[in-house]
From TrEMBL:
Biological classification of the source: Bacteria, Pseudomonadati, Pseudomonadota, Gammaproteobacteria, Alkalimonas
Cellular component terms per the entry's GO annotation: membrane
Cell compartment(s), UniProt: Membrane
Domain named HAMP: residues: 199-251
Organism: Alkalimonas amylolytica
Name recorded for this polypeptide: histidine kinase
């Protein structure tokens, strides 16, 4: 089936057609011309050989026949004529007088040569002659030799004949054999060309074309086989290199597009945050003065009012004002543009200041943040006010979420500083991504109990200090959530005071 399918597909195999038209057929034509000229030359050689055979036979018996003819010994003449049949395929032998009349004969022969031009020419010139003639409807080739006595006088004529078809049969057999050989050579050449092309060129070319079709169909991961002749292997290697370059270029293009999209998203986010910051800054500024006035008037009225109900109402007003004031401070902190006030401070002092600041906000029953292990003695170059604000917001978020405990752990090595703030609260809600919680104005607290800016401020300040923030749930071995962990990471080797 494979050979049949290949033969059916052969007309489309242009390379095979070209090999056939420009290599095999010219070669076969040259061989055919060589055979044609060879047959013509061989025909002449065979004819000469057959003539030579008759001439040799005639020369061998001419002298004895000449002596027997002079002695009129017919028995000897017939004996010599009979002897030619033992030498080769001779069909007739005869002796004639100079007048062309038959003297003795054996086999197929003519009775009278008085009208034969060949016989007359031999007698006249004394030279041997040969030629074709017909006897009893049969074509014969006869060789005529003059019978000469010892004095050189012609006194007879010797004729030796064989069938003309002997020449034709010999040449026909030779021609048939030659053309059959040519045909066998042609078929063998075609078979060798087809089979050799299939094994040496056709199969590698088919594999290469198949590889190109797969790539054209969209399979960009396909690579061509490097088997086959060196030239085709080089083409396949070039195709593979081109595909690798295209894949690399496409990968780079995708990376550039992703980076461009990320930068566009980041720019859009920065533009949004800048717009929000401007609005927030304006709102905080406008709210700050009225809240101060309300708090001052409430404090004055609290000193003037003596009844308990009025004092409770005024305390409630001041509590709400303080709550609003804290929200205004958060808004101002979020909208704050960092100032290059970098200083070298001690980490333990910075942690302690943050703990002191958060202690003023604690209500009865709130978890008190504490250090799990003593803080390492590390000196940092940073903006102390901004970084303390980040710590306070992180601690405030943990205190608001904790049930009974907020732990602080500080880990420092040669390259980075890590501050872990852990609480034992309910953790992040199911399906709530930590990245979403870090966004501004996103809060997991009930409505009215948070602005959603605390963790956003922490992330903003850490980014200003080339650090990062991570928020994750704490889980036990049974995957039960036991609280949240806020991780602040600061690269110590990259925190430097910026140039003015």
């Amino acid at each position: 089936m494979t050979i049949l399918s290949n033969l059916r597909r052969w007309p489309q195999a242009s390379l095979q057609r070209r090999l056939l038209l420009f290599v095999v057929l010219p070669m076969l034509l040259l061989v055919g011309l060589a055979i044609r000229f060879g047959l013509a030359l061989t025909s002449e050689l065979v004819s000469n050989s057959l003539r030579t055979d008759l001439e040799l036979i005639g020369r061998a018996i001419r002298v004895p026949i000449s002596d027997a003819l002079l002695q009129q010994d017919m028995a000897a003449i017939n004996a010599h004529l009979e002897s030619v049949f033992t030498i080769g395929r001779v069909y007739g032998a005869s002796v004639y007088g100079t007048d062309g009349r038959l003297v003795a004969a054996t086999g197929v022969t003519e009775r009278d040569l008085s009208d034969s031009e060949l016989a007359s020419e031999v007698v006249r010139t004394g030279l041997q002659q040969d030629g074709y003639h017909s006897v009893s409807g049969q074509s014969l080739f006869s060789h005529f030799l003059p019978v000469i006595d010892r004095s050189g006088q012609i006194h007879g004529l010797l004729q030796i004949s064989r069938k003309g078809s002997d020449f034709e049969q010999s040449l026909s057999r030779m021609s048939t054999l030659a053309w059959l050989s040519w045909l066998a050579l042609a078929l063998l050449s075609l078979m060798i060309m087809w089979r050799g092309h299939q094994r040496a060129i056709g199969q590698p070319v088919h594999q290469l074309v198949d590889s190109m079709r797969q790539v054209a169909a969209g399979n960009s991961k396909h690579r061509a086989s490097l088997e086959g002749p060196a030239e085709l292997a080089e083409v396949a290697a070039g195709l593979n290199q081109m595909l690798d370059d295209m894949a690399q270029a496409q990968s780079q293009l995708l990376s550039q597009q992703e980076e461009q999209q990320r930068m566009q998203q980041q720019l859009k986010k920065q533009e949004t945050m800048a717009a929000i910051g401007q609005v927030v800054s304006g709102v905080a500024h406008e709210l700050g003065a009225p809240l101060s006035v309300i708090d001052g008037r409430a404090q004055r009225l609290l000193r003037l009012q003596q009844d308990g109900d009025s004092q409770r109402q005024l305390d409630a007003i001041r509590g709400q004002v303080q709550r609003l004031s804290r929200m205004v401070k958060q808004l101002q902190a979020f909208a704050h543009t960092p100032v290059a006030s970098w200083q070298t401070v001690s980490l333990p002092e910075l942690i302690q200041q943050a703990l002191t600041s958060i202690s003023f906000e604690l209500q009865p029953g709130d978890a008190v943040p504490r250090l799990l292990v003593p803080c390492p003695q590390v000196a940092l170059t940073l903006d102390p006010d901004r970084f303390e604000l980040a710590l306070v917001n992180g601690l405030r978020n943990a205190v608001q979420a904790a049930r009974s405990e907020v732990l602080i752990q500080v880990i420092a090595d040669q390259h980075s500083l890590t501050i872990l703030i852990e609480d034992d609260g309910p953790g992040l809600p199911t399906g709530q991504a930590a990245a979403d919680v870090m966004q501004p104005f996103v809060s997991t607290k009930p409505q009215g109990q948070g602005t959603g800016l605390g963790l956003a401020i922490v992330q903003q300040i850490l980014q200003e200090h080339q650090g990062n923030v991570q928020l994750s749930n704490k889980t036990q071995s049974d995957q039960e959530i036991t609280g949240c962990c806020l991780t602040l990471t600061l690269p110590l080797t990259t925190v430097k005071e910026p140039k003015s």
